[in-house]
Amino acid sequence: MKSYTRQAGITTILSTGVLALSPSLAASEADLQTARKPNVILILLDDFGYTDLACYGSRFYETPNIDRLAAQGIRFTNAYASCPVSSPTRAALMTGRYPVSTGITDWIPGRQATKQGSPDDKLLALPFRLQLEREEITIAETLKNNGYATMISGKWHLGTGEEFWPEFQGFDVNSGGHAAGQPNRSKTSNGFFSPYGNPRLTDGPEGEYLTDRQTDEAIKFIESSSGKPFFVFLSYYAVHNPMQAKEEHIRKFTMKADSMGITDAEAFTRDREWINESMSDNFKERIIQSNPVYAAMIYSVDENIGRLVKRLGELNLDDNTIIIFTSDNGGLSTSEGSPTCNYPLRAGKGWLYEGGIRVPLIIKYPGFAEPGIIRNTPAATIDLFPTITELTGSSDNPLIEGVSLVPLFKSDRLKKRPLFWHYPHYSNQGLWPGSAVRLGKYKLIDNFEKERQELYDLESDLSETTDISGRLPAKTKKLYKLLTDWREKHDAQMMIPNPAWKGAELQ
Questions:
Q1: In the structure, what pLDDT confidence band is assigned to residue 118 with cuts at 50, 70 and 90?
Q2: Where in the chain are the domains?
Q3: How far apart are CA 168 and CA 134, in angstroms?
């Protein structure tokens, strides 16, 4: 097996076989201090919805190993991705900064590559950065500078040119991270099954499953990092399209759907007012979790996380390893086959409603907090960088815009603060462009196309069914000013009118 490493600005190929270290070797005091630092495994799923775990409410998907992590750690109920689509959230995760600060506000290369200027679009998006700039300080660079061995296994999606890939952003080993946002299917590659056609991952035997392989590579790296703390970014390509899973798992969930009396014909609707108002005939919303292939993909992820945790125990590393589990955006419920349902949350990936941005977040650090804690305080992707640096005693980045979640390990109190989203693009999933802010229980969404604001009380209306902006004009005005001030402070790019818009003559 081969993977890639960055040394002196040169990418070289390294063997990822197990490094055997002699127990008789004497360690220096510095080595001993380094060894006591906690290891970090950051698990990021792709397009994984808030309710895609049993411990978050799913009755169809089976996730016993991830549920066990939640039972042994902290489960956050108000955690958010920093954007409703992939690349901006990933940039926020790596830097602890909002997407507007990194300049990456849409998935790379974005809808602009194919549909910019469509007569269906009232507005035009301005260009955005198509790579995470090398000048950005990543969590991998920070931990590496503090004595950590660093590795990514899986998806990157933060730059088209090789010079912006993980080995040049602080990762010693890059196994599978490159420009693409999903496994490739072509004449020479087979998506989630080998051959992968991935320039940073050698093909495995025919039929090898990518989720298994990603976990294998992570385990090999952990085994080879004896005597040195490690940071593993296990960035699964699952559960992104293409929908592919092992046949035995598909059969399992096909039988389960049958036993529950669930059919795909009953799983979709266009009867909700917001769907008819906001979406074209090309979009429909799944309202029932029932897709056996998607369930099977989740099941494989869960099996592999169980396998990873088991190996940590065998290596006596589990008590000194921080495990963080989350997703890059909400579940895909309104397009591309709509494989999952985010109910009771509204909409899904690509939307500024809760289904598009609220995600699961689990943090396990044995001995640091009581097991099974549930925290309701809002948290976000940008908070994971400062959380990790505090837990590892690493130097922090003064440009970080998130806050450490460590105080929530002891109590459900954190200084009240607003959370912001800025998505000046039309999504592939049907959303109009906009921004949003949440402060306390209230969330305001600014619809750029209709030049109107929507206000929701998330405590009493989690599904965002009732816009209360008309009832609470003062609250709406206050949050709107908070949002516009934030956009101005960050020099957030706004959209411009589309001269080709087909509705222009009607105005």
A1: confident
A2: 32-417
A3: 7
Neighbours of 428 (CB within 10 A): 20
Q: Counting Cβ atoms within 10 Å, is residue 433 exposed (0-12), middle (13-18) or buried (19+)?
A: buried
How is domain 32-417 classified at the CATH fold level? Alkaline Phosphatase, subunit A (3.40.720)
How confident is the model over 493-507, as pLDDT tens digits? 999 999 989 876 555
Burial class (CB in 10 A: 0-12, 13-18, 19+), 478: middle
CA-closest candidate to residue 332, choices 308, 348, 310: 348
Name the token pair of 6: 């960055």
Mean pLDDT score, 36-61: 97
- Bridge partners for 49 per DSSP: none
Helix (H) or strand (E) holding 327: strand 321-327
- The separation between the first and the last C-alpha atoms of the chain, rounded to the nearest angstrom, is 61
CA distances from 176 to 161, 252, 463 (A): 15, 29, 37
The phi and psi torsions of 286 (rounded to 5 degrees) equal -80, 135
Bond preceding residue 195 cis, omega within 30 of 0: yes
Separation between Cα atoms, residue 104 and residue 398, nearest integer Å: 20
Question: What's the gap between Cα 66 and its chain centre?
Answer: 16
pTM of the model: 0.91
**Alpha-carbon span 218 to 197, nearest angstrom:** 20
Per DSSP, 246 falls in state: -
